[in-house]
Design goal:
It contains four helices and two strands; from the N terminus they run ααββαα. The chain has a two-stranded antiparallel ribbon.
Length: 126
């Protein structure tokens, strides 16, 4: 091989190398631009504070519902109990499973009872 042939092969290899390197650099720039374009906007401080306040209010309401007595449905006489008291009552009641089952079925039927339909309007032509 002549000196001109080696030089030509070397310049061709350098051209290929620069082409591949340029392609990788172009892809890196495109990926960086797409990453910045697709990145969601940061949450504003006011919105973040609002979310934390909502979360704190929600947790306080859940804690209150789990630890305090309250009416669930006063018309059907259904009361919400704290969890610990409900466990104690359940353990006490289920000492006699037959009576507890009968009582449970009666309470479910009472809680799920459908209200009677309203009276039909009188016909004005009668």
């Amino acid at each position: 091989m002549t000196a001109a042939g080696k030089c030509r092969d070397r310049s061709q290899a350098v051209a290929w190398g620069l082409g591949i390197l340029g392609t990788f650099l172009l892809m890196a720039v495109l990926v960086g631009a797409l990453y910045r374009y697709a990145l969601p906007e940061p949450i504003a401080a006011a919105r973040a504070k609002e979310r934390y306040q909502f979360l704190a209010d929600q947790k306080a309401a859940e804690a209150k519902a789990l630890t305090e007595y309250a009416w669930q449905d006063q018309t059907k006489e259904i009361v919400r109990l704290p969890i610990q008291r409900a466990i104690e009552l359940t353990l006490q009641e289920w000492q006699n499973p037959t009576a507890a089952r009968t009582n449970l079925i009666a309470r479910v039927e009472k809680a799920a009872a459908v209200a009677p339909p309203p009276p039909a309007a009188p016909n004005p032509y009668e």
